[in-house]
Design goal:
2 copies of one chain form a homodimer. Chain A is an all-alpha fold and about 220 residues long. Helices cover about 60% and strands about 0% of the residues of chain A. Chain A contains 11 helices and no strands. Chain A has helices spanning about 30-35, 40-55, 60-65, 70-75, 80-100, 105, 110-125, 130-135, 145-170, 180-190, 205-215. In chain A, helix 2 crosses helix 3 (about 60-65) and helix 7 packs antiparallel against helix 11 (about 205-215). The radius of gyration of chain A is 20 Å and the shape is elongated. The interface between A and B is large, with 44 and 44 residues.
């Protein structure tokens, strides 16, 4: 799945993904890096700034500096911080909630559908690693944050319902607490944002495969002592 | 395992655990709540403040207000924010690293030792939920933060070594990436701090048991489709 919302890889708007920490210089970028910019690259900059300083502490001034444009130019593009947060979170949700509508999530046994959702959620998390990191820090202080939390809960509820179906079908332990299991599984998936780097040695498919096997089969193999 | 460092339950120093969000009044606590206080209740207050505002954004003024004493009284007890952070993180590490020295972590097969460590780490995480939450937010900007990150890495390295031993013994999949598996497992454990409440319906033992089964046996049961 590509991310059409982002500027093309050859764009001069700078790297879209996490820069190596400490590598980013504070201050006004060179003129060459400043233009062109658009709403998507402004959103990219906002995501970096919000994750670095926290949404509440971050200012439009910080976003302007990160983007390399003046604050008044920034307000020409967006109404304010809240809109930038909404745009950033929309990226994550569009894809995450989209997983629930994929064919693999709609057909097959509850267990097969669950496996598809877990695997694909990890892939999406790694594709939108900064947006998902931001989503986790949302505290519910603004309407946008509360909407995000409600959407997140809807995702969790749909998955928990599938866990219950799998339990009813005898595919997973019937005594398990579906809500707890769902939280543990997606808590593990979310935690990857804390250490994952696009340029790292681990590929998204390897991480998704390892986590999916862990969740469904566990780590114990035949010859256990 | 008790937490001897904390004031007794009947202390007037206020609740030690996360208050229901929104329930805490901003402002100066009543005189009755102000005394007595000691270094441990000051540390409790600091942990709450650091988690609420972020360590960097939080001030000694905020900690003083939360504790209900003046800033100058606060400096009589501690040298500053960094010391409070160090004291808070020390609580988490003393117990987390202590798990590695427990009999169950020192004897038995690699798999048995691993199982003990996973289970006990969840119990400790839930006991020190606020301190572990704080630990996860540490960014490495100060010597105390860097020391905490180094200690956390040492814990991860020791567990990863045990995962490798279990793989060598044929107890777990030999092809698994031990460092990745360790990160996923403890990422899941850490994520519990984001939703766990001491007064909630889920008991620590139930959460620890569910997570341990998930990690070792996975969720799939015999009758899978």
């Amino acid at each position: 799945m590509k991310r059409p919302a982002r500027p093309p890889a050859g764009s001069t708007a700078g790297p879209h993904h996490l820069p190596p920490s400490g590598a980013r210089k504070i201050g006004r970028p060179s003129k060459q890096r400043r233009a062109p910019y658009d709403i998507e690259s402004v959103t990219n900059a906002a995501v970096r700034v919000f994750n670095r300083h926290g949404y509440e502490a971050a200012s439009m001034e910080d976003v302007a500096r990160e983007t390399g444009i003046t604050k008044s130019s920034l307000y020409y593009h967006v109404s304010g911080k809240e809109e930038l947060l909404a745009r950033a979170l929309e990226r994550a949700f569009k894809s995450l909630l989209g997983v629930l509508d994929e064919p693999g999530a709609r057909s097959g046994t509850p267990l097969e559908r669950l496996r598809h959702i877990v695997y694909r959620s990890v892939i999406i998390t790694l594709e939108f690693v900064q947006e998902v990191e931001l989503l986790q820090r949302v505290k519910g202080n603004t309407p946008t944050e509360r909407q995000a939390m409600a959407r997140r809960r809807r995702f969790d509820r749909e998955v928990a319902a599938l866990v219950r179906q799998a339990a009813a079908a005898g595919q997973i332990d019937a005594h398990v607490d579906a809500a707890l299991l769902t939280r543990l599984i997606f808590g593990m998936g979310n935690s990857i944002t804390q250490w994952y780097r696009h340029e790292g040695r681990l590929k998204p498919e390897q991480i998704a495969e390892t986590m999916t096997r862990l969740v469904f089969e566990g780590i114990v193999r035949a010859a256990q002592g």
